[in-house]
């Protein structure tokens, strides 16, 4: 998978005053009544500034100033979208007096190093408050990189032979929007009916009719990705590995950023599930807050306990097109004897429900077996069993690269990772 | 009637000896031997600390409104025509002018007069509907002024100072033999007189009987003289908290042992304390007060909080300060919940869209209250 | 591209990896004047500060409800509520009710007559398990004794 600059995860991204939101942003839901002032906000910066920030080493701003915004810098805020109703999101000073927020903080067993103001900020979606200093876009970005990093390293070391497709799907199953939405709901987070300054700061605030931010990039965007958009390449799995800028292998970045002034193509700009996106961004922002305030190890522990401890049956995620041929290629590649299917047993061949048990042998070794209602499907099922047992090989508990971050860690022993799928 | 007359008159009424008792109310209305100023409806306020010169002339004149002997009252039929309202400047309010009734149509002697058959073209002379809306008819100056101090004093040091002052003044009066003044109205004094009172030396013997030494006569004169209200009334009631604390530290504390077993003495002290501090000792506690110390303790005991929320805010602040506790002193309504969810503004917007609600959803607490206060 | 991934979402189980208390909010209502709230008012004064401090993960919303019986309402993460009327109860009993609400999961009360509840597929009835059983059968058929099979697998037929 792709290279990640861990040392720059936080400082670079949080320091740039406008860039994080700009780089992440893909305005996804456009209401026709966006005020003019809003269009010039940093949320709508387009791509050219993207690359400049990748290479610019920005002086990291002090953390506190960035995360906990003081009440007095109100004059630097842009005019709220709904000026008659006051602030677009609750004032940070109100966070300390919200019982809901305090209870959420305690429910997640967050460290006292994380102020409730940060948690309150994590609950404000960019669609509720477009100002990057008051919404969770930056925190969510940090959180998503941390989450994706730990998810991918865990999956790869635990299942070194996983095909890329399945790996992407597993990443999504652990760290995608639907999973994070479920996590947020299980944390007991409730959404406000509509965002606003008078709303309890302990409620998730988003507006489904306003543009928001979708976390569809991670790390940084390769220069080639932008090129690949021009040439429409990168449809295959290797292209997705190379150019797909989404951790789930989706080439959503390949879609050109929608032009705001051109409202004709609005269907592609609609976010399918705005609440799920908002909930997921909140979860990412909490991870980001843990990373920023409590450090790398605490963030890893948090990710492990809340996300990677979830149950996922990887064997149910496979769909094979040509399992028998793939098995034959596998045996050829690994210098096994060619596979042979043998009928182990059968019952009720002339009945309504016959059962055939077919075993697959390679030389004298039995690779696997399966039952089926006829000989052919039993043979295919047996081949699938064999392939799954190959792909889902796990060396057990092995160390992951992030274990070596500790000061007194043992030197890294390279983990075994297979060369990839058999027929790509 | 006899029972009441046995007590000397309450404070507001030095005029009291002249004021008729409540007899006219009990007897048949419109009963009077001579054209009396007005039946019971008037503005005389017995327990007001207002000076008598501000009272209606009819009451302050010293002329008995009702003869002492009730038996002599002759019931006579007094028609409405004989009702003569008082001059308005002496009332708490300005009553509307008396209605003038036109002659009946058949009694008109003018031959040119023809009764109207329709209201069209007739002159409109207005009505009384907006009379009470005019604040000029409810002058603030005529508001009731109570005997009790308006602000209830809760500061224990101030309460102690007030008790000492009241006790000293009472003892002065008693010692000078002016027993009837114990139930009289004592004016508020200026600071010099107040200091003079506190400067008097109170000695208490083993039985709790106290003797005051010093310039008693001046103090007594100061107290009674101000009651006449001939000059501008001084309003100095209590020293500041710091002064009171200094006085307390200087003074010998033995005066607190003064016995209050004498009912007249106790009444005078309580009355004066009530005037100075606004603190009224409830009847059930009166019997337990034997000494000045007991009185101070009774007064200093903070009142029981009326609601649980007040009690918790004062006595158990740790519950309110817990971050995960939301403590609401008032009922949490649907509106509050909607507001916290951000739904309230949506509802308002929908109402506005349908022209159902102009302005906020919240309704003022009581329209009736506004009417009571005479607000439009 | 002979393999296609089927999208799934990982399943979380509370208590594995992390535990989230299911009671997220406890509404506490009392009345200042009526006698049925006497125990509740005493509970708020004496027990609640300590109870709330010990349970920081629960949001306590205390508010008066004049002319009504005192009531405690637990709000749960699954969206359900559980209300207990605590009229005329002693403070210690109310504390027990509060603990009951805090410990509840918010689910409907249902009969649990199995020692283990699992989201994992049954070993006996899973797809792979069938093939294992079948292979056992295959071995057994060589011995040509159907009674033996019946004896071996009585639970399998049930």
TrEMBL record, chain A:
Region called Disordered, residue ranges: 64-98
Keyword terms, alphabetized: Mitochondrion, Ribonucleoprotein, Ribosomal protein, RNA-binding
CDD domains in UniProt: DSRM_MRPL3_like (cd19873)
Statement: the UniProt record of this protein carries the keyword rRNA-binding: no
InterPro entries per UniProt: Ribosomal_mL44_DSRM_fung (IPR044443), Ribosomal_mL44_DSRM_metazoa (IPR044444), RNase_III_dom (IPR000999), RNase_III_sf (IPR036389)
Localization annotation: Mitochondrion
Predominant location category: mitochondrion
PROSITE patterns referenced in this protein's UniProt entry, alphabetically: RNASE_3_2
RNase III domain mapped to chain residues: 101-189
Biased amino acid composition, Basic and acidic residues: 66-78
Sequence similarity: Belongs to the ribonuclease III family. Mitochondrion-specific ribosomal protein mL44 subfamily.
Name the UniProt record assigns to this protein: Large ribosomal subunit protein mL44
Originating species: Apiospora phragmitis
UniProtKB/TrEMBL annotation, chain B:
Region span, Disordered: 1-21, 357-376
Main subcellular location: mitochondrion
Domain of life: Eukaryota
Keywords annotated in UniProt: Mitochondrion, Ribonucleoprotein, Ribosomal protein
Pfam family, one: Ribosomal_L50
Ribosomal protein found in the keyword field: yes
Biased segments, Basic and acidic residues type: 365-376
Subcellular location(s) per record: Mitochondrion
Protein family per UniProt: Belongs to the mitochondrion-specific ribosomal protein mL50 family.
The protein's name: Large ribosomal subunit protein mL50
Species for this entry: Apiospora phragmitis
Lineage, top ranks: Eukaryota, Fungi, Dikarya, Ascomycota, Pezizomycotina
UniProtKB/TrEMBL annotation, chain C:
Subcellular location: Mitochondrion
Keyword Iron: no
Domain Ribosomal protein/NADH dehydrogenase residues, every copy: 32-105
Keyword Phosphoprotein belongs to the record: no
Transmembrane segments: none
Top-rank lineage group of the source organism: Eukaryota
UniProt keywords, alphabetically: Mitochondrion, Ribonucleoprotein, Ribosomal protein
Annotated SUPFAM superfamilies: Thioredoxin-like (SSF52833)
InterPro entries registered for this protein in UniProt: Ribosomal_mL43, Ribosomal_mL43/mS25/NADH_DH, Thioredoxin-like_sf
Family the UniProt entry places it in: Belongs to the mitochondrion-specific ribosomal protein mL43 family.
The protein, known as: Large ribosomal subunit protein mL43
Species of provenance: Apiospora phragmitis
